[in-house]
Amino acid sequence: MRKYIFFCLILCNAVLTKAEPATNEPLVEKQVFTAQQFELFNGTVLPEVTVGWESYGTLNKDKSNAILITHYFTGTSHAAGKYSHNDAAPGYWDAIIGPGKAIDTTKYFVISVDSLANINVYDEHVITTGPASINPATNKPWGLDFPVVTIRDFVNVQKAVLQRLGIASLHAVIGPSMGAMQALDWAAAYPDKVKRVISVIGAGESDAWTTALLEQWTLPIKLDANWQNGNYSRDNMPIDGLTASLMLITQQALTPEFFNQQGETLGYTPLEAAPLTRITSSHSIVKWLKQRATARAENMDANSLLYLARACQLFVAGHGTSLNKGLADVAAPSLFLPSASDLLLMPYLVDTPHQMLSESSKLLTLQGQFGHLEGVVNVQQHATAITTFLNNPVR
Amino acid sequence: MRKYIFFCLILCNAVLTKAEPATNEPLVEKQVFTAQQFELFNGTVLPEVTVGWESYGTLNKDKSNAILITHYFTGTSHAAGKYSHNDAAPGYWDAIIGPGKAIDTTKYFVISVDSLANINVYDEHVITTGPASINPATNKPWGLDFPVVTIRDFVNVQKAVLQRLGIASLHAVIGPSMGAMQALDWAAAYPDKVKRVISVIGAGESDAWTTALLEQWTLPIKLDANWQNGNYSRDNMPIDGLTASLMLITQQALTPEFFNQQGETLGYTPLEAAPLTRITSSHSIVKWLKQRATARAENMDANSLLYLARACQLFVAGHGTSLNKGLADVAAPSLFLPSASDLLLMPYLVDTPHQMLSESSKLLTLQGQFGHLEGVVNVQQHATAITTFLNNPVR
């Protein structure tokens, strides 16, 4: 069981759930959306946008039962279910998305879209347009010629996908972490289209602290000699830099409690013989962390990490001159679920938006030792609150 | 005043003090200690150890009034006073060390020693033996051939310096951060020589979390193409890697509150025009952080950072098989001063040693927005407690 939890946590593509796999549930199929001449928030135009999306449940006749799930930084649109009965684990929020679950797919049509510049470029189930995509003007990967994209652009791509499906408004937008940024920005940008917002381990904006912290993730990549200012080829990628970045992200997303439990499992002690003897040897906990980061790096692209970090750094809900102005038009009731032990997007980051939206805002704290990841692997501790919030009539 | 605080904080070689400079105080002089064939904790023998030391106040006749100050990771033996009346700032703990201050130099002989592998290799006032020193066997810098050194070795070098001066026992050992590790290890290793211990922003041992966190500091250096497995020359040093490492250290040593105040000063907003337009441009807060790290890197050596990180990773007070055993022989009363807002060595890290030493241990928490650095720049908030602790008779 413990091993299973680690797998879930570190690969971040599965959730801890006690439910038996429902083998009679329909399998998930990845769909593709394409648009031409897509105008971005900063004014540049992408000649083509192609992204993957998937859905669970059935869209009702008047197309009023759609719930959009927006994914986290290292996540994908695979929020629930399995692509094949042989999949090792279902989508990351399977504990709360499914028939009879908190987000009940017998009632709702749940949809999720791969972000622009999705980091999991080499995951066979991910379809994205980003710096690793081919630039039609050069027939080579965009690299750093890819334009800067924002959380608003992820929202606008999702909006285009929904329009194509004829969905004019959303019963709710719900997401963890970077997904929470998208959820809140939806409510700010398109108040008439969003009936409810749930921000899990989110933020109202990227403050100076968070922007600096996100920058730390990008530094190891840019130091890797293979990076070549973003002009690397598939067979010579800056894997060491990407792995170092993921080591940092993995640690910041967890807690001392979690690491020290893992240390116990490994038999960690400060005075381990190898690192005491050789400066080039590592402690057991370091080797463990590096192994996990190496495994995560396999399907990921380093440049895409830089673009996602930038999108998060530029985030302020509403994408205006201030958070206050950005939230002024929000009409949707909101539910904030920060994690008490979060060291990455600390709980204080939702205090301001929660207060600004006070009349229609509710805040419940996630408890546990998983830090930021509490919102990915253990969000089901507030399953009842989520269901109640979704059932509440609005306007 | 604000600028002065930033200077103090970021260069970490000065303290915030409201006292007027006492121009009639004697200037500090750096002294040199050398020993041959110095056996290290891991069994290897250094052919030569040369370190700098300095002192404030006068050693009494029976040599019983000595207080040892042990310095932090990026610090030096310059704990108080000035080398020249023109110095921009005095030593880092000048607010508590001096005539009539918490550590009263009219009563005590206060001494501090540059650590082995001190990071400030190119600071004219620092004398150290480390990976940047010349290996007599090759007549080239040691690089990674320098043996792994531990907190215990720093303690043993200090012990040798004191022996040379005829000092058999210490009225107290006091240090912040890595210095707190040395202070506690002194009490564990040489219980008959240490009368009192003050651990400021310290730890009982490097737990799995802390060891992983320290490893993060080393990763950017090892990614820098100039690093060359540690075989770099003075005119081709891995400055970019070192700077990235210092950006991480600087942020972890501070707090969101501090960064967000700094952001206000800079006019930081998430949607700054340059980073929205170009992926290669940075936010104001990132530029600020990088400038500060670049300035700090000037006198520093990258390999030395790797060795200091390793010394801290290997730390368990007493350097035995467990903290419990390590502290079993401690006879000295101890005073722990963790910082409530510390994100680097979190306050929980002294809970266990404080509880283990319960009968003779006192714990007071530093309050403020400076995080880990509270113990460097604002330790004087517990000046009275320090004085009282030093005045208490023991045994």
UniProtKB/TrEMBL annotation, chains A, B:
<keyword id="KW-0963">Cytoplasm</keyword>
<dbReference type="InterPro" id="IPR000073">
    <property type="entry name" value="AB_hydrolase_1"/>
</dbReference>
<keyword id="KW-0732">Signal</keyword>
<comment type="subunit">
    <text>Homodimer.</text>
</comment>
<dbReference type="GO" id="GO:0004414">
    <property type="term" value="F:homoserine O-acetyltransferase activity"/>
</dbReference>
<feature type="active site">
    <location>
        <position position="342"/>
    </location>
</feature>
<keyword id="KW-0028">Amino-acid biosynthesis</keyword>
<keyword id="KW-0012">Acyltransferase</keyword>
<dbReference type="InterPro" id="IPR008220">
    <property type="entry name" value="HAT_MetX-like"/>
</dbReference>
<feature type="signal peptide">
    <location>
        <begin position="1"/>
        <end position="19"/>
    </location>
</feature>
<feature type="domain" description="AB hydrolase-1">
    <location>
        <begin position="145"/>
        <end position="236"/>
    </location>
</feature>
<dbReference type="Pfam" id="PF00561">
    <property type="entry name" value="Abhydrolase_1"/>
</dbReference>
<protein>
    <recommendedName>
        <fullName>Probable acyltransferase</fullName>
        <ecNumber>2.3.1.-</ecNumber>
    </recommendedName>
</protein>
<keyword id="KW-0808">Transferase</keyword>
<comment type="similarity">
    <text>Belongs to the AB hydrolase superfamily. MetX family.</text>
</comment>
<dbReference type="InterPro" id="IPR029058">
    <property type="entry name" value="AB_hydrolase_fold"/>
</dbReference>
